[in-house]
């Protein structure tokens, strides 16, 4: 996904609403980097299954912090 220029990221929030059966998915990590500097990547590790069922019928949101 492409986005606007961002300042220094410390945390991101990612999720889904589990609206349809089978809408769960596994999130390994999110990698964010400037288009002109891929070596300046910021990695947000998750390693979890994003599943509405596993969240006891709540909207699923996860806050991910920088992986060092």
SSE order: EEEE
Profile the largest sheet.
Answer: 2 strands, antiparallel
What are the low-pLDDT stretches, counting only 5+ consecutive residues below 50? none
* Beta-strand residue percentage: 35-45%
The radius of gyration is: 14 Å
Shape: elongated
Q: How many domain regions?
A: 1
Mean pLDDT metric:
76
Number of strands: 4
What strand line-up does the widest sheet have? Answer: 1-4
Share of helix among residues? Answer: under 10%
Count of alpha and pi helical runs: 0
**How far is the first residue's CA from the last residue's CA?**
23 Å
What does this protein look like?
The protein is an all-beta fold. The chain has one domain (about 10-65). It contains no helices and four strands. The strands form two sheets. It has a two-stranded antiparallel sheet with strand order 1-4. Strands 2-3 form a two-stranded antiparallel ribbon.
Q: How would you summarize the topology of this molecule?
A:
Blueprint: E1 11-16, E2 25-32, E3 42-50, E4 60-65
Antiparallel strand pairs: 1-4, 2-3
Kindly summarize this structure in a few lines:
This protein is an all-beta fold.
